[in-house]
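Hey,
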Amino acid sequence: MTRIWELNCLNCEAPLEQNQAYCARCGQKIGAPRLTMHEIGHEFMHALTNVDRSALRLLCALIVRPGLVARDYVLGRRKRYFGPFGFFTVAVAVSSAAIALGHLSMVPGSDPRLVAVSDSMRAHANLLTLVQAPLLAAVCRLFFIHVGNNFAEYLVLAAYTSGMRALFFSLVVLPSLFLLRATGHELWVLSGYFAVWAGYFGFAASQFHAQRHGWTWLTGVVAVITAEIAASIILSLAISAYLGSISVYVG
């Protein structure tokens, strides 16, 4: 297909001059080629490797300096990386898909009611993970109340770190559980996973507050433990209510 020079930007309708390479209003490239699989592949690789806001750059940064990434976003430097909530949503989607494909049992036991609960939790794993981030942010707001950060700022920290947690669970923990499913070591894997998560968040919290001493790290670890206990209580109450409703229905 032969393209003629556009008089207006195809994206925002802004008027163009013949020597323009990009639209001055929205930044779209002028005279974009016809969409092909080559163009799609190029856009995909650009999204992964773009120096300014690449996914790989964000992942590398979240491994070594998660708290600083969140702190940059809170302080207004928001064009360096993908946003925390978009990243968290994608990570949760990847984790939920991995859980569904792996048929991971969410509740131990062979009782039909427990199997029904496990199936329901697996089907709604994305919601369970999404709820944990604001809960962790609320606990951090309480534990670090003397610092002066608000709930929304802690939600940024929780979103970035919880996104990494979801990816770690999908890429490391789930394969380990699958490989060790017949050895009886699943509890050790899950215990190690939680220890890594707690230590990672403590590390992120110390960077986020620009305080590298052990007390800030320990407070972050305790915040994770507290949030997990609260989530477990809420989940237990929900499971009890669900089992009760099943019993009433069956009865």
